[in-house]
Amino acid sequence: MNTTLRIDRLRASVEGKEILKGLSLEVRGGEIHAVMGPNGTGKSTLASTLMGHPKYEVLGGSVTINGEDLLEMDVDERGRAGLFLAMQYPSEITGVTNSDFMRSAINAQRGEGNEISLMKFIRLMESNMNTLEMNPEFMHRYLNEGFSGGEKKRNEILQMMMLQPKIAILDEIDSGLDIDALRIVAQGVNSLRGADRGFLIITHYQRLLDYITPDFVHIMMQGRIVKSGGPELAQRLEAEGYEWVKEELGIEDETVGQDEDEFSMPMNTTGPKIR
């Protein structure tokens, strides 16, 4: 069965304010979808809602992953179903090493009796860290503690490479990265491209899409997707901004939420249809 994340007329609120207002999107294995839009249009709210952050209340609509009701799952069940979120602001956890966290996450995904062996885990982690040009000592550092912004972002991609999700959501993974770190992070993402894995990339900037070429680009405003196209759509946004979209669709200059409402907990343990 081809991997499919199907979002149908999703509505969600935070602290009593409706942010997502009937958003629909379908992401299949082998596809990379980029979601762009002005600040405060609900992009990070979408990521947090899909992953099950308790701060966000679903008001309506449906979300399925491979035909299963995602909204009925707990966060860990969403991870085991193949959903992954690379967070915009990863948390620091003292006392838990990067390697211990990662191995526990993999074993939780694999289930009792099918745990990964220590040697296989070490080889896999060292190989992926080498791809991301990470110092091997980061295996033994506490999770994200004392990491720079770029190191935290690489660590999120490392988790994705280790867990091999079916649907990967990357929430502004490019924010705060210099050009070298951006290239390395994109290299890690591109290494996982394949027919059995879909990506939903939330970003403000064309520069990330210079390294990770999307199949589809979606513009999000007022809590829903208002326009979709190919990579050329992101290039036009870079050159002209969003005013032409607002004028074309008759959208007032309004924001519905704060993109800073990020998923702040480390719970990664495990052709678009616009309706």
From TrEMBL:
Give the SMART domains listed for this entry. Answer: AAA (SM00382)
Q: Which Pfam families match?
A: ABC_tran
- What is the superkingdom listed in this entry's lineage? Bacteria
User: Ranges of Polar residues compositional bias?
Assistant: 266-275
Extract the ranges annotated as region (Disordered).
256-275
**Keyword DNA-binding assigned:** no
Q: Does the keyword ATP-binding apply?
A: yes
Q: Which CDD domains match?
A: ABC_FeS_Assembly (cd03217)
Domain named ABC transporter is located at 5-247
Provide the GO MF annotations for this entry: ATP binding; ATP hydrolysis activity
Keyword annotations: ATP-binding, Nucleotide-binding
What family does this belong to?
Belongs to the ABC transporter superfamily. Ycf16 family.
PANTHER family from the entry? ABC TRANSPORTER I FAMILY MEMBER 6, CHLOROPLASTIC (PTHR43204)
Protein name, please? ABC transporter ATP-binding protein
The species this protein belongs to is Paenibacillus albilobatus
